[in-house]
Specification:
heterodimer, A: mainly alpha, 2 domains, three-stranded antiparallel β-sheet, two-stranded antiparallel ribbon, about 65% helix, globular, B: alpha+beta, Penicillin-binding protein 2a (Domain 2), Beta-lactamase, six-stranded mixed β-sheet, five-stranded antiparallel β-sheet, binds zinc ion
């Protein structure tokens, strides 16, 4: 153990202050979202904002503890931590409390703990450890399968709860693997498939009016647009050999995929399954039905205007029009009360955080530290993209928290440990060589 | 360079791209598209309109003519309606299940988020029951409205009525919103802007369960309603009620004016109707009923809209114009030569007072001849043209053939024929006195409105001037009177020429041989002039105008009873009773009142139809 004074000496203050700013903004927005006239104090422990204060204070305690640890602790204990997390995930399936149809929580007294939040940390450490132990390149089918298995175990266990949102977070590790040598095509296909899937389902309900009273389904329009793009690409690369076949192949795959999604959705799935997916994607047209959350969330954000309605003046969030307004939909409060400027500040702060993590990761001499940094950035990015995307109708409604903002101890603790483990590694980068 | 280090740019690029897409999307929904703002307001803000109290109308003795009674509109916000027991709801309101469905559909068509009227004007007594159970039915709430109530079923034509605004009203004045009320006739229409007051509003915030969460922005955009101003009407409610009673079973009108001010004391158009009929939910049914009664036409206000030939009372105007023009003096005599124009009574060679007293037709034939053919031109036609021009100008100064500027909308002008009128009718230089002599005794082309006859009586009482007859004495707490009602209008007839006229009118009522002996009273000296307008083969219109007391007159009155008989038979005693009521506050001659009240000419009107 080192002397206290040196603990903070080499840490990255940009990350520290961005973290602090986001956490405090989160606290203020939780206060606004669940503000209660009878409990006006932000320190009122009977309210979620009072409890969040406890989580924040305890998070700084965790920061302190993490910074006190020996940096080698993380690589040495990566697998044991991973194993502990997996045990917790198994345990929660047996001893957990079912909340909203999912066995995701341990509850003791008034407190509850969500092991899937901690599992991200354990998985990140384990994956990092495994990848950093490999040679120069991330190659070979068995190597890849092993890496995927590290991800599949927690993902599978969480899927049994079931908690789809937390499962999908594990897809974010694709960025880490890509950085370490996974083919770019896989990333491209992965991103493309995700985008097409959402787009195809969004367009499933849309028809466009053409002249002469013709109507065209959204999917057909999409295929036509893809076809035109393919033709253009073909014209541009006319001289390349095999471009024709490649383009036809790509076009065929996309068209088949889009219609396949459509076919599977309309003809294979039963109606209750359809509405489950619609609910997931928040694209049901009946705004009082499955798409209600997104509709309300967009009204809240959209009504904020440029400067917002002002602190505690938000009506949509405060008066419960927006569901889960202090947890998954906390960004609505930002958008409604602080307007476009508030949204801009939050997104820019997160972007600064992500960029800073990547830049710092690249300056690590230790491969372990670098890979871990990418894990942290990927997890944060995925949470951001899905959480904010869902509130503005650009991503399916998947219940995952907005880091540092959403109310809840488990996620705040997990994100704090996740981030400051990296800060700790970075502060010791001169001492860690491998 | 570490292997694959370049790939950080791809990853950072993806981070940046997503962030930019989000910022772009947020810019669109937060800054550009304002439909979200509207949706938010629709969901969370409830604008509660606070309706001002409509001004009350009192009579000249501060007795209420019209006041307000609360009623409630049941409003519905379709988006808030959730499943509930429809049949118990329908039972509560007394409507059928199918009516429930159609009304809800209609409301939904108007707007899903805005309230629209589901059931109109639920009386306060029934509302107590409804509001008690309303909590069970999401999406419904009550809005307080006021209905007009009339403590005495009188003055319907004067007061007019209010009804729900139509699209044209809303187009004309953006103040009005669907469901509002507006004065449609009578004083309610004329004084709409004064009576209605100013709406207030209160913006409340509600949560997702429609629970009120407080004032929006602490009431920054709220305003209090400003009550409408009360009006003091110049009508004497008791006099008005008596007039309506006397006119029952008759068609015609009574107008009584205070000569010194032009204030209308009573204004009866018979038949009338109970103003309470046009209030509340039975309104449209009753309105139709009144409209379909075409032999009596009770919605028609005869006092300002009916045009009649004035008959013999017009001889007074002829006399005054002739005196002032100097074509006769009060000593001028004419033979009662009944060759061209008939006469009645035993006189043969009257001077002016006698001619008025006996209503001698040949006398006024000669008077009118002197007014028209004044020998100013060698051509008899041109001479008549010039004479008529002067004559009609002078007659119009008496308020005939012009629109009196009273405060009831839609007043008719009547007709005083001009040279242009006859030129159009007969052709230029195709007419002379011999063509138009019927005007001399108030027949011919002359058309007057009953209020103009009463105004003539007031002019004589005032000896030469009048104020615009009007109904509103004062407006609001500061007792404002419209300035145009205090402006004197002069007939430009020398007051001295009124002496013989008043004397003659005294004799008409008070001397044996006068045509209006039935108007005589022991206690009050009444001056008057009868008229009998012929309607061959139907009975005559009975006309009488009078003022009283002779010295310092307090009331001028004109009565017109259609198809009844000589002016002296019905119109004169009605006038007399009106004068008695107004000047003494009661009717002592109960038998006379009873005789008139019981008289009915409805069979004649039915036959004429
Ligand atoms: Zn005669």
């Amino acid at each position: 153990m080192r002397a206290k004074s040196s603990i903070f000496q080499n840490i990255d203050w940009t990350i520290f202050w961005v973290y602090t700013t986001l956490v405090l903004m989160g606290w203020i927005n939780i206060y606004a979202a669940t503000y209660n006239e009878q409990h006006q104090s932000i320190f009122d422990l009977s309210m979620s904002y009072g409890k969040q204060m406890i989580w924040i204070i305890s998070s700084y305690l965790l920061v302190w503890i993490v910074l006190m640890l020996d940096p080698r602790f993380f690589s040495r204990l990566a697998y044991p931590i991973y194993a502990l997390c997996m045990a917790l995930l198994v345990g929660v399936l047996i001893f957990g409390t079912e909340i909203k149809g999912a066995k995701s929580w341990f509850t003791f007294g008034g407190f509850s703990f969500q092991p899937s939040e901690l599992a991200k940390y354990g998985t990140a450490l384990a994956l990092t450890y495994y990848l950093s132990s490999l040679g120069k390149k991330f190659q070979g089918i068995f190597v890849r399968i092993k890496a995927f298995i590290i991800l599949l175990i927690p993902a599978g266990l969480i899927l049994l709860q079931p908690d789809t949102g937390s499962v999908l977070v594990y897809a974010s590790f694709i960025f880490v693997m890509y950085r370490e040598g996974l083919s770019g095509n896989i990333l491209l296909i992965g991103l493309g498939a995700a985008a097409l899937f959402v787009l195809a389902l969004l367009l499933n309900y849309t028809t466009f009016d053409l002249p002469f009273e013709l109507q065209i389904s959204g999917q057909t329009l999409m295929i036509i647009v893809v076809g035109i793009i393919c033709l253009l690409i073909h014209q541009m690369f006319r001289n390349h050999k095999g471009i024709k076949i490649a383009i036809i192949l790509v076009f065929g795959v996309i068209a088949g995929y889009v219609y396949g999604v459509n076919f599977m959705f309309n003809d294979v799935l039963k109606s209750h399954q359809q509405s489950r997916i619609n609910e997931l994607l928040g694209i049901e047209h009946d705004i009082t039905g499955a798409g209600y959350n997104v509709h309300q969330s967009m009204i809240a954000i959209g009504s904020g205007g440029v400067f917002g309605k002002g602190f505690l003046e938000g009506t949509q969030t405060k008066f419960n029009f927006v569901p889960e307004q202090s947890t998954d939909f906390i960004f609505c409060t930002v958008g409604e009360e602080w307007g476009y400027l508030g949204s801009l500040v939050v997104i820019v702060l997160f972007l600064v955080l992500l960029f800073r993590i990547v830049i710092i990761a690249e300056r690590q001499r230790s491969k372990f530290s670098r890979i871990y940094g990418y894990c942290v950035a990927s997890i944060f990015f995925f949470h951001l993209a899905i959480n904010i995307g869902m509130t503005i109708g650009l991503a399916p409604v998947i219940g995952i928290p907005l880091p540092f903002f959403s109310y809840g101890g488990s996620s705040l603790w997990a994100f704090t440990i996740l981030l400051f483990t990296f800060v700790k590694m970075d502060s010791e980068r001169m001492h860690i060589l491998s | 360079m570490k292997p694959f280090e370049d790939r950080k740019f791809v990853i950072l690029g993806i981070f940046l791209t997503i962030a930019l897409i989000f910022l772009g999307r947020l810019f669109f929904i937060q800054v550009i598209d304002d439909s979200y703002q509207m949706s938010a307001n629709n969901q969370t803000l409830r604008t509660i309109t606070q309706y001002p109290v409509r001004g009350l109308i009192y009579d000249r003795n501060k007795q209420l003519l019209v006041y307000n009674e609360a009623a409630y509109d049941l409003m519905v916000v379709p988006s808030k309606v959730s499943d509930f027991d429809t049949s118990s709801f329908c039972q509560l309101l007394g409507i059928s299940d199918s009516a429930f469905v159609t009304r809800l559909k209609k409301a939904r068509k108007y707007s899903r988020y805005r309230p629209s009227v589901f059931e109109k004007q639920i009386p306060a007594s029934q509302w107590a029951l409804v509001s008690e159970r309303l909590y069970k039915y999401n999406g419904f709430h009550g809005e307080k409205r006021t209905l007009r109530k009339y403590p005495k079923a009188t003055s319907a034509h004067i007061l007019g009525y209010i009804s729900e605004v139509g699209n044209s009203d809303i187009a004309k004045d953006s103040y009005y919103k669907s469901g509002d009320y507006i004065g449609k006739r009578g004083l309610e229409k004329e004084y709409e802007s004064v009576l209605r007051g100013t709406r207030g509003k209160k913006i409340l915030m509600v949560d997702v369960h429609n629970r009120i969460k407080g004032n929006y922005r602490n009431g920054l955009y709220d305003s209090l309603p400003i009550a409408g101003k009360n009006l003091i009407c110049s009508i004497d409610r008791d006099l008005q009620a008596l007039g309506e009673l006397l006119m029952q079973g008759k068609r015609g009108s009574i107008v009584a004016i205070e000569p010194s001010t032009g204030e209308i004391l009573a204004m009866i158009s018979a038949p009338s109707y109970d103003p309470n009929l046009l209030v509340g939910r039975p309104r449209s049914k009753n309105y139709q009923m009144l409209q379909q009664n075409d032999s009596l036409n009770p919605l028609f206000n005869r006092t300002i809209n009916a045009m009649y030939r004035p008959g013999s009372i017009f001889k007074i105007v002829q006399a005054l114009v002739a005196l002032d023009e100097g074509v006769i003096t009060q000593d001028t005599r004419f033979q009662c030569n009944r060759g061209i124009i008939g006469c009645h009574g035993s006189h043969t060679y009257d001077e002016l007072v006698g001619a008025i007293q006996h209503s001698c037709n040949p006398y006024f034939y000669q008077v009118y001849k002197r007014l028209i053919q004044r020998g100013d031109n060698t051509s008899v036609f041109k001479d008549a043209n010039m004479g008529l021009q002067t004559w009609q100008e002078r007659v119009k100064l008496f308020g005939f053939g012009v629109q009196l500027k009273t405060d009831l909308p839609g007043l008719k002008m009547g007709l005083v024929p001009t040279p242009e009128f006859y030129n159009k009718w007969y052709g230029e230089n195709r007419w002379a006195f011999s063509t138009i002599y019927s005007n001399s005794i108030g027949e011919g082309e002359l058309q007057v409105v009953p209020i103009q006859m009463a105004n003539l009586a007031a002019i004589i009482a005032n000896k030469g001037y009048y104020y615009q007859p009007h109904l509103i004495k004062s407006i609001g707490e500061d007792s404002v009177k419209r300035p145009e009602f205090t402006q004197k209008f002069d007939t430009e007839v020398d007051p001295k020429y009124f002496e013989p006229i008043v004397k003659a009118m005294f004799k008409v009522v008070n001397e044996s041989g006068g045509t209006a002996r039935k108007a005589r009273m022991d206690s009050i000296i009444v001056c008057g002039k009868t008229g009998t307008v012929q309607n061959d083969p139907w009975p005559d219109h009975s006309v009488f105008m009078a003022f009283a007391p002779m010295e310092n007159p307090k009331i001028a009155v004109a009565v017109y009873v259609e198809y009844s008989d000589y002016g002296g038979t019905w119109a004169a005693p009605i006038s007399s009773l009106m004068i008695e009521q107004y000047l003494t506050g009661e009717i002592k001659r109960k038998d006379k009142q009873k005789r008139i009240t019981n008289a009915s000419f409805l069979e004649i009107y039915e036959g004429k139809k």
